[in-house]
Amino acid sequence: MKDTLSVDPASLKMLEIARERGIETAWDRYLAQQPQCGFGELGLCCRNCNMGPCRIDPFGDGPQKGVCGATGDIIVARNLLRMIAAGAAAHSDHGRDVVETVMRVATGEAKDYAIKDENKLKALAAEFNINTEGRTVKEIAKELAEAVLEEFGTRKGYIQTVERVPAKRKEIWERLGLLPRGIDREVVEAMHRTHMGVDNDPANLILHGLRCSISDGWGGSLLATEFSDVLFGTPQPVKGKSNLGVICKNAVNILVHGHEPILSEMLVAAAKDPELVAAARARGADGINLVGMCCTGNEILMRHGIPAAGNFLQQELAIITGALEAVVVDVQCIMPALGQLAACYHTKFISTSPKAKFPGAVHVPFDEHHALDTAREIIRLAVENYPNRNKDRVFIPEDITEYVAGFSVEAILKILGGTLNPLIDAIKNRSIRGIAALVGCNNPKITQDYNHLNMVKELIAKDVLVVETGCAAIASAKAGLLLPEAAELAGPGLAGVCRALGIPPVLHMGSCVDISRILVVAAAIAGELGVDIADLPVAGAAPEWVSEKAVSIGAYVVASGIFTVLGTVPAVLGSKVVTELLTRQAKDLVGGYFAVETDPFRAAELIINHIDEKRAALGI
């Protein structure tokens, strides 16, 4: 049974330990939920007012309308729009936090941070029509941060960063009323529209969902990426190690988990503090070992080469090694089960954000004004906890795989000699058949990493260059696919390109918020060719997606004109109208559309067929 839970050997070893010790994990809780609510799986339940909850019988024998008269089509569309709004809010709020930190650096309030990429700062300032001549970095940063914070509730009619999309794409958005008018405004309007008695047209609801998602992908998420680069440095290729084996037997182990680099960057600095390292050694440890999990792990691995302990479904397994002195979290994708699990060991579960508190956690409030001091306090808590470790309960899998990560847009351009032309030429001469972006989470409904890895292997074998972010990228890291040597698994054309440039066939482009990097490259290629993004031989996929953020991501990728394959079924099949709109009509409206395919081999085939169709249409 356990062999069907994951393809990752480290995870399988830890699941065996968990079973022997009677410890519950996400997989156990998933099985305990069976059978899951059929109405919910189809999206046919509504709790948007207190006349319900209402459900629609998909077989026609029971209720066909809610108490207010809402049909299944209306309920499904409203539920989907609320998921998009929640996902857009999560990623965009992340962006706001980073921009506000840049503001505090500019005003001198956040003394522990500094502007590390002045060139990107000035490029962004030019994009927002801000003069940089004869001005200090802090003066530029302050005016830019003020301008960008206005984007969340702008009154000028549209967000500035949509100017990055090709003219043909912007025309489509204008025609359909999809240009975002402000990041927060679209989220608020989504919640208003889905209130009982407001918008009850399924198509109208879905179209606003696309507008809301665009405010995320081309707004909040893009700003999160750009300002993280300004503040912490734009990633360049870096080597590192991945999987649970990066947890060290004789070190103070601290797992950083969540999404915002504002905290993790300070923890990286504090973990090197000579006084704290000496304190760890005084307690018998070899030193301090910081490791990452999920997207915080991606942020610090691509900027510092910090080891990545794993992806979403491994967060509990890392604690079960018995060797973590602390798990430090901020926001997003953190299981509330961690507090109770940590209590079974000596591990301290430390929350830091006022937005995210957890049962069983020690809360250490983190803010930018005292960032390094707070990070030192957190590291000290872990160091002091080391003597409490029960060495008899420690089991650390030996599985470790190296990776190369950090392929930002700037890094890719540098590798290509400063222009995208070599990449475009490789696509034209079919050395690279096309590009596929694989993103997203792990889901206990699917054998961990199985869909990710099999799709990747099928695609690169057919000369499709794969770009990845988030937990999908960590899956490939653990399997050795983020190494130049993985070119051996690629088709002859892609393999030749990889060997010539010294790159892997799978490029790690960052955390899940960094999907904007992929969009920027796609828009630049379309601009060079004088076509729309929808005309390119590119596709997207979320093989094991879980969260509402993934729904927003999928929506803005489709709204950008990109065909996208989902590997887990979204809760929309209860409505033929919504399903038809997303999988067929969207193609005519915005150029992109969804397909659902749970088999990774057939999903890869869908992507390859789509890429070939686009190549034929372009005459290449």
Strand-residue fraction? Answer: 5-15%
Question: What is the average of the pLDDT values?
Answer: 96
Give the strand order, joined by hyphens, for the main sheet.
Answer: 6-5-4-7-8-9
Distance N to C terminus: 47 Å
Quote the CATH topology of the largest domain: Rossmann fold
What do you see in this structure?
This protein is an alpha/beta fold. It has three domains: 83-232, Substrate Binding Domain Of Dnak, Chain:A, Domain 2, CATH 1.20.1270.30; 244-393, Rossmann fold (3-Layer(aba) Sandwich), CATH 3.40.50.2030; 405-618, Rossmann fold (3-Layer(aba) Sandwich), CATH 3.40.50.2030. Helix content is 49%, strand content 10%. It contains 24 helices and 16 strands. The strands form four sheets. A six-stranded parallel beta sheet has the order 6-5-4-7-8-9. Strands 13-12-11-14-15-16 form a six-stranded parallel beta sheet, sandwiched between helices. α4 packs antiparallel against α8 (183-193), α5 (118-127) runs antiparallel to α9 (202-232) and α10 (261-270) packs across α12 (294-304). It starts with 8 loop residues before the first helix and ends with a helix. The mean pLDDT is 96.
Compact overview of the structure:
With 620 residues, the protein is α/β, with parallel strands linked by helices. Helices cover 49% and strands 10% of the residues. The strands form 4 sheets. Strands 6-5-4-7-8-9 form a 6-stranded parallel sheet.
